[in-house]
Amino acid sequence: MAHINLENDLPGIRxxxxxxxxxxxxxxxxxxxxxxSDEGLTKGERELIATFVSALNDCFFCQNIHGAVAQYYxxxxxxxxxxxxxDYQNAPISDKMKSLLSIAKNVQQGGKFxxxxxxxxxxxxxxxxxxxxxxxLIAAAFCMFNRYVDGLGTFAPNAPEMxxxxxxxxxxxxxxxxxxxx
Amino acid sequence: MAHINLAQDVPGIRSLVMYRPDTGKPLYELAQILLREDSPLSQAERELIATYVSSRNDCTFCTSSHAAAAxxxxxxxxxxxxxxxxxxxxxxxxxxxxxxxxxAGNVQKDARTVSEENVALARSFxxxxxxxxxxxLIAATFCMFNRYVDGLATLTPTxxxxxxxxxxxxxxxxxxxxxx
Lengths: 182, 180
What we know:
A: 9 helices
């Protein structure tokens, strides 16, 4: 049971967005702009950062829906998301992505934990300023989304096929800006 | 020095919004809706929640600027802001706001620690669903802004006058993205 009466039985952030469409609008535009672009980081890489941070925050709904979207894009490895969540340093991703995930990990702990050495390392592996910017903002944004979803005690179904189906729809049709919470 | 190449002499969130305006736009819109537009909580109370969370996240820029906005909005009771930051349980604010700050503190720490007891206490002092919703989303949003501002090591002014001016602008004009 959610902490407030949402007047709907939608899971996770969808219930919150239906409850308060006024704040849902900028939240969806932010997600759309940050996650649905292949400029610099690919859509799959962006979703992977979102999933990784949501897993660190132990947010069940967010890590499952974004994990399903990330896995949708990871056509070359059906267990990629699982591998990154378990041990990203030894996962089959680029050294650049590993260095960006280490920055995202420190953002999750707190902004001041990001250090110059990490930034230098990411730049050495080929990360551009905009890629570092997007990594930090995606990580920060999911520290918000995760807290919004869990702080109001929303429910999250334990049904992998629901997340996969929704993920396919987000990736192929609606994105975030045009997704209907219902 | 910021971690990426931002406009020089522009502090905090403004430097980031100028760097990437297309993400800046929904961020400012979110701040404007949450802190200025329709809510059962006053603008001063909402700025106080933002300040309290930023202080717990040790974000100097956000704490100082939102504290200045809250002082501006509290007018004759501006000292409330500093009393809350020092010890909110013994500060001159309502029991309802104390209960909401407890919820905000738990959101900041780990959102899963917001308990039914926390929520029941807030309700016993008159908090509505919207009060609780807005508190949680303001707290969550500042967990983002604080990390964005510090995670990229943006410029943080150190003098009180700069923040007092910022606070007045935030209290009167609200949140308008910088012109490019």
